Amino acid sequence: MIRARRFAPAVAIAGVAGAALLAIRGPAAPDLTRGASLYAEQCASCHGAALEGQAEWRNPDPDGSLRAPPHDDSGHTWHHGDRLLFDYVRLGGAETLRRMDVGGVVSGMPAFGDILSDAEIRDVLAFIRSSWSPEMRAFQAARTEDEDR
Ligand code: HEC
Predict the structure, then answer these.
(1) Is the CB of 83 within 6 Å of ligand 1?
(2) For 38-81, how does the pLDDT look when each residue is reduced to its tens digit (9 = 90+)?
(3) Domain ranges of the chain
(4) CATH homologous superfamily of domain 31-147?
(5) Protein residue with least CA distance to atom 22, ligand 1
(6) Please, which contacts does 113-121 make with residues 24 or more away whose CB atoms are closer than 8 Å?
(7) Confidence (pLDDT) at 87
(8) Which of 34, 68, 97, 148 has the fewest CB atoms lying closer than 10 Å?
């Protein structure tokens, strides 16, 4: 009994530390490693292994469809809030643009809703976000806040 009592505080401290760690990491914290490998598997073929986008991405293809833009600072992914980015990946470009009433754009961005879970989409987006400079991140965080208003 004496022994057990002596150990009790240590156990209690370990328990509190464990709970604190869980609170910091949280179940919803994105997994950047998984995001990076999903990006390589699912996105890099069009958006580039180093997030650089397709060559000449600012010029549409001869059929009028847009080319895959970079996801790094040189593109415009950071112009969009989290909700739009999530929808773009889950629903694809055509459906997202249709819902936004944007016409006249042919989007070659496929829908990943049947391929990636919501958590996986968030991980890929977190990986993309992790490539941005602090300025781009701050800009995009403000866009995300605007979306929630
Ligand atoms: C088959 C080629 C292809 C694949 C694979 C692909 N994309 Fe795209 N994506 C495009 C094209 C083309 C566009 C540009 C058209 C548009 O904006 O609607 C685009 C646009 C986007 C956009 C919106 C434009 C912006 O500002 O960044 C996001 C976000 C995006 N892709 C994310 C992803 C993610 C994440 C993956 C992997 C899960 C992925 N894409 C896989 C072709 C692709």
Answers:
(1) no
(2) 999 999 999 999 999 999 999 988 888 889 999 999 999 999 99
(3) 1-30, 31-147
(4) Cytochrome c-like domain (1.10.760.10)
(5) 88
(6) 115/42, 116/38, 116/42, 116/89, 116/90, 118/86, 118/90, 120/34, 120/35, 120/38, 121/86, 121/89, 121/90
(7) 97
(8) 148
